[in-house]
């Protein structure tokens, strides 16, 4: 065996020793190139989801039906900008820049969660996003606070802490609607009808075939950047959500939903994965709109970013001159 | 793409009496804006009373390759830690 | 004692500007700025809620913050015209922010000494907030004014857009806790100082627009209110 190979083997062994003992990999540690690439893609997709996710809810800031709700929604959408920012920063520790990642988003080379390609048609959708979409996101994210990559895990700790209010405000908002007028209750049910299956689809395709053995899931689990399979997380979400829907007095649009005593879980109808793949590929109700909005904001801001950079360079030159 | 603002590391003092602790990073065109952005991004829930920002490329770090040389020698100097010393239980406030 | 009309005017200023700044969310030039603008909007919304609640109490007719925000028509809004202007580009927004935050700073600084305890308490909290808003706008006006040729051109245009709406801020107001005319001098000292540092000249005085305090607004306010109010009004008596 050539000496270089020996060194590579040692480094890989050191990496797996850390990962296998549930330790954390830090930015300057040696890591397999595939681990680094997978992490960049996963963190970037997560960051993109946060900033694209600002749009469907931001859509209702101007129309929020009370000043209290307006303040809550504004604070929530602001948090999402912050979360996107934390996540881009975590990805940047792996040797890519935010600009590069945004460019990959804008040119459709990287994805964001397909849930945000559905429209928010009524005020109740804002509550449904908080309750279901943030609920699903939290189910996904809590295990990531223990993921093997330190900066990602730390960003997730911060995000999960801040997001705890997001789901609660969504639930509270829906509860107010279901306890309100008939029109408000109908609005809440309509939102649940539209958001239920897309929320279930947020956990990704089912754990079958390639996905389970030898596929991405297995590799990611080996690396400690995924702790549970898609179906495990989906089940956990359903088990958590069904009793909440009963408190709300809303009906989950699934006639086959029922408690299975034997399994100790709810049985439920799987989401339409063909639809999920269609939306991921770009054929969702709002794909074009979301991306166009994002690209426009970025392009409209170019002259501002450039001006601030130019000002900083001028100031630096002035200081250098004064010091000389 | 060349116009990307530089990256800054943010350190926040949670309250008087504590050190500044690294909380994350952000982009800003210059130090003045970096401090302001840090306030908005990292202390909007009242997490701090003082902020430091440092350009990320100005940080000099120990190399992970030198880890053993840097950190292992300290590992056997147990006498630096108070628990190294046995004292009778009746001796208080030590 | 503070008049209901005065509390309403200050509350409306804050509410309408918060509504405008909220439009920037997910549209800012950089993520950090999304967070900053949302913070400012949230501060203003908080001020608006307290002031409108207080205006309702002073009126004594049982109207709360939402009744005042959602059930008045444009002719009953008392905000200055400046805050209802469309956002324009980032330079217009920053010009408006500088003008308005510098005004609010001088105002709240003095209102801290109001004999009305509620108003003094609002001002005590708000003065710290608007101090930050003023600084935020200052930093941007400096950078845009002395950045690139394009940013300078846009900053000049932004200042020209908002300048006709400056005079209205300092018009006499019957029953004000603090005489607005007294704020002009310190405001001028601050704002002109920033413009000088940015290498920008003070726009030439042109026509000055006024009427907001009497309910005579620009065409823009009707659309702003239509959006703000429609859902609430579609469900009279509902709780949210």
UniProtKB/TrEMBL annotation, chain A:
Gene Ontology CC entries for this record: cytosol
Pfam families the record matches: PaaA_PaaC
Single GO MF annotation: phenylacetyl-CoA 1,2-epoxidase activity
InterPro entries documented for this protein: Aromatic_CoA_ox/epox, Ferritin-like, Ferritin-like_SF, PaaA, PaaA_PaaC
Any one GO BP annotation for this protein: phenylacetate catabolic process
Name of this chain's protein: 1,2-phenylacetyl-CoA epoxidase subunit A
From TrEMBL, chain B:
Superkingdom of the organism of origin: Bacteria
InterPro entries hit by this protein: PaaB, PaaB_sf
Classification via NCBIfam families: PA_CoA_Oxy2
Name of the protein in question: 1,2-phenylacetyl-CoA epoxidase subunit B
Lineage of origin: Bacteria, Bacillati, Actinomycetota, Actinomycetes, Jiangellales
From TrEMBL, chain C:
Gene, per the UniProt record: paaI
Single GO biological process annotation from the record: phenylacetate catabolic process
PANTHER family: 1,2-PHENYLACETYL-COA EPOXIDASE, SUBUNIT C (PTHR30458:SF0), PHENYLACETIC ACID DEGRADATION PROTEIN PAA (PTHR30458)
Protein name, UniProt field: Phenylacetate-CoA oxygenase subunit PaaI
Domain of life: Bacteria
Cellular component terms per the entry's GO annotation: cytosol
InterPro entries registered for this protein in UniProt: Aromatic_CoA_ox/epox (IPR052703), Ferritin-like (IPR012347), Ferritin-like_SF (IPR009078), PaaA_PaaC (IPR007814), PaaC (IPR011882)
SUPFAM superfamilies recorded: Ferritin-like
Coiled coil feature spans: none
């Amino acid at each position: 065996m050539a000496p270089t190979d020996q060194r590579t083997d040692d480094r890989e062994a050191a990496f797996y020793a850390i990962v296998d003992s549930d330790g954390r990999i830090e930015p300057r540690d040696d890591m397999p190139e595939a681990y680094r690439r997978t992490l960049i893609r996963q963190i970037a997709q997560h960051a993109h989801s946060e900033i694209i996710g600002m749009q469907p809810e931001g859509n209702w800031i101007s129309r929020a039906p009370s000043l209290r709700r307006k303040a809550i929604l504004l604070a929530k959408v602001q948090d999402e900008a912050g979360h996107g920012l934390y996540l881009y920063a975590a990805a940047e520790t792996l040797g890519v820049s935010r600009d590069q990642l945004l460019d990959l988003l804008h040119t459709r080379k990287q994805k964001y969660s397909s849930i945000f390609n559905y429209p928010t048609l009524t005020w109740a959708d804002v509550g449904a996003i908080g309750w279901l979409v943030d609920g699903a996101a939290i189910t996904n994210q809590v295990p990531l606070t223990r993921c093997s990559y330190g900066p990602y895990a730390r960003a997730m700790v911060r995000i999960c802490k801040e997001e705890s209010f997001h789901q609660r405000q969504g639930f509270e908002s829906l509860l107010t609607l279901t306890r309100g007028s008939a029109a408000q209750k109908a609005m809440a049910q309509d939102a649940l009808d539209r958001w239920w299956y897309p929320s279930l689809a947020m956990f990704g395709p089912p754990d079958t075939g390639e996905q389970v053995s030898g596929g991405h899931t297995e590799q990611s689990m080996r690396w400690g950047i995924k702790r549970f399979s898609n179906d495990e997380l989906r089940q956990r979400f359903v088990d958590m959500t069904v009793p909440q829907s009963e408190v709300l007095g809303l009906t989950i649009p699934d006639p086959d939903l029922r408690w299975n005593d034997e399994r100790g879980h709810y049985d439920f109808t799987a989401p339409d994965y063909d639809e999920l793949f269609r939306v991921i590929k770009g054929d969702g109700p709002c794909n074009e709109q979301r991306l166009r909005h994002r690209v426009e904001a970025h392009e409209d801001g170019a002259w501002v970013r450039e001006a601030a950079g130019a000002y900083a360079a001028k100031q630096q030159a002035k200081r250098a001159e004064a010091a000389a | 793409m060349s116009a990307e603002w530089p990256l800054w590391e943010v350190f926040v003092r949670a309250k008087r009496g504590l050190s500044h602790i690294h909380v994350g990073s952000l982009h800003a065109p210059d130090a003045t804006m970096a401090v302001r952005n840090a306030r908005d991004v990292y202390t909007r829930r009242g997490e701090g009373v003082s902020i430091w920002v440092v350009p990320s490329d100005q940080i000099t770090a120990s190399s992970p390759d030198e880890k053993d040389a840097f950190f292992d020698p300290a590992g056997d100097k147990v006498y630096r830690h108070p628990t190294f010393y046995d004292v009778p239980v009746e001796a208080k406030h030590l | 004692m503070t008049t209901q009309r005065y509390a309403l005017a200050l509350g409306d200023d804050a509410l309408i500007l918060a509504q405008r700044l909220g439009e920037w969310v997910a549209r800012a030039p950089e993520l950090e700025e999304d967070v900053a603008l949302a913070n400012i909007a949230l501060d203003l919304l908080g001020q608006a809620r307290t002031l409108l609640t207080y205006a309702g109490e002073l009126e004594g007719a049982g109207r709360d913050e939402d009744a005042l925000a959602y059930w008045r028509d444009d002719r009953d809004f008392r905000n200055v015209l400046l805050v209802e202007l469309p956002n324009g580009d980032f330079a217009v927004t920053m010009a408006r922010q500088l003008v308005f935050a510098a005004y609010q700073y001088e105002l709240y600084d003095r209102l801290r000494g109001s004999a009305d305890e509620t108003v003094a308490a609002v001002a005590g909290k708000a003065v710290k907030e608007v101090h930050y808003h003023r600084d935020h706008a200052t930093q941007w006006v400096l950078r845009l004014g002395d950045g690139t040729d394009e940013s300078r051109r846009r900053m000049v245009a932004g200042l020209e857009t908002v300048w006709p709406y400056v005079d209205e801020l300092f018009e006499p107001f019957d029953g004000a806790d603090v005489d607005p005319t007294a704020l002009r001098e310190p405001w001028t000292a601050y704002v002109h100082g920033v413009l000088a540092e940015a290498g920008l000249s003070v726009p030439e005085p042109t026509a000055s627009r006024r009427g907001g305090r009497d309910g005579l607004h620009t065409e823009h306010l009707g659309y702003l209110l239509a959006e703000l109010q429609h859902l609430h009004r579609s469900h009279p008596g509902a709780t949210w």
